[in-house]
Design brief:
- The complex is a heterodimer of chains A (466) and B (373).
- Chain A is an alpha/beta fold.
- Chain A has helices at residues 2-45, 71-79, 99-106, 148-158, 177-187, 220-242, 258-264, 274-288, 311-331, 342-357, 359-375, 381-409, 416-443; strands spanning 58-64, 86-92, 110-111, 125-131, 138-143, 163-167, 172-173, 191-200, 204-207, 210-214, 253-257, 294-305.
- In chain A, helix 1 (2-45) runs parallel beside helix 12 (381-409) and helix 8 runs parallel beside helix 9 (311-331).
- Chain B has 373 residues and is mainly α.
- Chain B has a domain at 272-373: Leucine-rich Repeat Variant (Alpha Horseshoe), CATH 1.25.10.
- Helices cover 73% and strands 0% of the residues of chain B.
- Chain B contains 21 helices and no strands.
- Chain B is elongated, with a radius of gyration of 29 Å.
Chain lengths: 466, 373
Amino acid sequence: MDGFKLFFDIVGVFFVAYMIGYSSFLFLSVTVGSSTLYHSKLRNRLKSELSGEYYIPVSIVIPAYNEEVTIEQSIKSLLALEYKLYEIVIVDDGSKDDTSKVVVEAFNMHRINRPIQRRIACQPEEMIYESLDFKVPITLIRKKNGGKADALNMGINASKYPYFICMDADSVLQYDSLEKIVRPVLEEGDVVAVGGTVRPCNGAKIENGRVVSYHMPNRILPCMQVLEYDRSFLAARILFDKFNGSIIISGAFGLFKKSVVIDAGGYDSTTMGEDMELVVKLHEFCREHNYKYRIRYATDAVCWTQAPERLGDLCKQRRRWHIGLFQSMTRHRKLLANPKYGLVGTISYIYFLIYELFSPYIEIFGVVTMVLASFVDLLNIPFMILFLLIYIVYSAILSLTAFFARIHTIDLKLKFTDVLKAILLCILEVSCLRFMLAFVRAKALIGYKKKKHSWGRIERKKIELN
Amino acid sequence: MGVELMIYMYGAVCVAMIIFNIVYNFISKSQRPRLNRRAKKLTYRIKPQLERLKDGKRLEQEHLDWLFKKLKRIGWLLALESVLDSAWLEDSELYELREHIDSYLIAIQPVMLYLAGEYIDSKPLHSGYFTYFLSRHGVPRQNEIESLQGILLEYLKKENFYCRVNSLKALYRFASAENVVRAILTQDDGRVFLHEKILTEGLLSFTGNHDELIKGLWRSFERLSERSQLAVLNYIRFKSPDFKEQMYGIMQDKSRPKELRLSAVRYLGKYSYAPALEPLIAMLGDKDLENWEYATVAASSLAGYSGLSVIEALKDALFSGNWYIRLASASSLERLGVEYADVIDIMSGSDRYAREMMSYRLETRKLQRTGVE
């Protein structure tokens, strides 16, 4: 019995330390994130920001696979952007549907024999089309299937400008997003990458890249994801940005300096989380080559994307993210607590290792321990309930703080029912969805090698654009 | 106990954050009506002053005193901007008097001068906004008060990025070439990074005499950092064809930084200069891999020249081992109007890379023509 007691004591101490670490991080990130958003709002009010007179040439690379339903709208939305100097490069990664045909017909594209310099290895092109009939040049490259990373590498090879943006074929950029995402490059000299803000568009009505009305999504699952996005992604990324420690730029919207990405070897087509892998690789590359660099996060550069509405799709998405995380962390394990990599190796890497990669296992271990403890009558049930309640209330308050900070600072108007929905669902999110997803993530690594090149399809609806 | 204390502390701060959120929401909701109220008050006070200006009278001292007092607060300055931006469109009486707004802005210059001294010591965001206000509503050209510009040069020494950008904008608006040259030298202290694009675009927005400004900048050229020099060269490329000899000098000076020499090559591509032809051809023909950027830009610049030697040099460069040199050479040949028959030797030759590149450029031209049609 003493052995059990000692074991549970050690587990207890471990979990107290774990929870203190996590709650401190969450607290810090939400505090810093919210204050940064408020400060940005003030800056905006007092016109302390660059106006859209300065244009850095940007290539927008869109990898597409079986996107015949959404691709036309996506390209149309890109043509409506309020920016002057950009090009659009669509890479059809051997789609089985009519993705290429839809693009060729909708944008009056002509087949052309264009040589492409292979500065990064990728599958060969099959056909290239161009159109010069629109505001900016559009290029379509149909290539042999090789996965999303491979398609992005092809897009980088074909792009003409010194900076490129990667985005998903089913996402929509806000009208001013290019202007906002290039700002950090103009503000600081050494910026090699800028992450944009990805927001679930469920519940938003978008016209010409502008949100004309917004309400919380009707379905519970995307609603909870809206809250989760604000707490976990927005706030945490702002915090990491403060010390050049961002190790994730979402594949849905990010800007990169092409020369540095090429020197670092481009996207890794053998990983599922090519977006994270690239950013970690850039940190490693720049540090090892003593290249002065900054990786920034632009809170006001917005890309709207569809959050999965079905539980099955959400699980698929999280499974994929977790595998990508695992691959990036293991491939760049030399960063772990290595002072050569500064705060990226010590704070960011360790945070992602403990609170992202290991967290589902730790959480499940915690539940199993509680069950065991109750068997041997060592579980203090009232204390456990109290602790759980504190955790729920604490997380819910932080979720709401991050959520309202975002809503207030971008002048979105919410109805009373939306506020009520947010309050109720944030409790459900931290108490149920989080544990459910922990279980999914814990299982993610079982047999993942079989599907390493897959595109990870998620059923999406057409984004409503006018 | 320590853990409990920490939980309570975190909880307390969380609750404080929620309260802050609620309060902030109320404040921001009241901000717009407050701004509108202030704008209305300002309109009410400005209208009789505009009437006075219309009648050839001066502003009342009482009005100036009131402005001295109120505009020290950022909220009132925001309201004044709102009046100048849009309120006159919504108020028919003010609309009638709109042609006197410039005179009004000139008449309140003593207030602006006083405010410049006040805002320079305030928060960086407020200083930045004040300079932004001047960049939008500073006095029109030739009417500037010299000492206000002198103070703006002091704002340029502040370590706030936006304060510097907005101060520069205000000085571009004031149209004094001499002060802009001083401003460019002042901002070049290496403490705040200003992208060369911001400097170039800013200089292009200068409302005064560009020739005068270019001459002034050129006189101070050697005192500038490389980044500012690059911005100035790019600016000159957009505005003046009269610097061929100087640019030629920079292009040929191997002790100059690469970016400056490349900018000079671009200039000599935009404005052709006979003595530069041979050096450009030599640059293009340079086989040293280290010099591929010079060769590439030279290839692009040669599109501004004509003659058999240019065509031959560009055709030779199509066989270069460097992809960018081939691309630039093919583009220049296409811009020089070569037809398929002129490059038949390449199109039927054995070098696949040269053939593909030339073929692509000719196809693009066809596509452009289709687009135009």
